[in-house]
């Protein structure tokens, strides 16, 4: 089973950092380490935390609402309920386990809870140590089992898009399209959407993260659809741009420029390549085409259990890519008043290049 192996890897890190245990509160990290899928309704409301000691069994701390789910989904963990609150349980269980130095995910924990955690446990002789990205670093490189699941997620996402595209002229507004996409995802077997779908017609496409509105779909203007779904825990993320009817010469010119930039970025990806150099390979194409200032975001980001995770393909990131990393490649051009064009595919970094997970090029090459 994959979870004990992941726990052992984390425990080695705890040993190096001289921590007796770590409290895992970030939902994707919990799922990565034990399989528990309990959902959080925002950072202020948790479905449980995972306590990983430097040695021995892991402990899943939750409440009555999630007891049966926790026992079913996380069979490798000892499940404890906290009817009187998480802090009260921690004050009881940590001394029993001999834990004196407790790490916690400071990048995800609310400041107010971190303060309570630190002050309350100090009275018990337990020191709380802020810790960042211990599990996220493990998640950077996907094994072949994870890659296979992500590949399925990508292909299902493409299938849903293709079904929506066939009926694109039957939708009146951006909201209509977004709702149809997300309903089709669930019907096709997705757990959920990876993020709120972006559907932007005409000038709204100049907003990279446009929110769908009651704006009418303009049949002769650019239409941006950015969508992703969750399948068996793993996300997909894809952007397609097209004109519902006949594209203008300007649209064709810009679409081809963005596609050329995307292909240049993909060609630059391989194990050992720096993220900033991959970003530069694509960005230089758009800059040479005269639209450098209109491409203002990073080239891409990692995707896995979270739709946005490391590594980031940006001009500031000198991290070297490693085989097994999965990233998006999504250059774009955004022109206020006219619209935008963004093309996004997902790729797996390999030793001598990369594997493009998306298969359908119908809407990419025009």
Characterise this structure.
By secondary structure, this protein is an alpha+beta fold. The chain folds into two domains: 138 residues, Creatine Amidinohydrolase, Chain A, domain 1, CATH 3.40.350.10; 213 residues, Creatinase/methionine aminopeptidase superfamily (Creatine Amidinohydrolase). It contains ten helices and 19 strands. The strands form six sheets. Strands 4-3-2-1-5-6 form a six-stranded mixed sheet, with helices on both faces. β10 and β11 form a beta hairpin. α7 crosses α8 and α9 runs antiparallel to α10. The longest helix is centred in the middle third of the chain and has 23 residues. It is elongated and about 70 Å long.
What features would you highlight for this structure?
366 residues; alpha+beta; Creatine Amidinohydrolase, Chain A, domain 1; Creatine Amidinohydrolase; 2 domains; six-stranded mixed beta sheet; three-stranded antiparallel beta sheet; 10 helices; elongated
Biggest sheet record: 6 strands, mixed
User: How would you describe the shape?
Assistant: elongated
Report mean pLDDT, rounded to a whole number. Answer: 96
Helix content: 25-40%
Order of helices and strands: HEHEEHEHEHEHHHEEEEEEHHEEEEEEE
Could you name the CATH homologous superfamily of the largest domain?
A: Creatinase/methionine aminopeptidase superfamily
* Low-confidence regions: none
Question: So what's the oligomer here?
Answer: single chain
Number of helices: 10
Q: Provide the CATH top-level class of the largest domain.
A: Alpha Beta
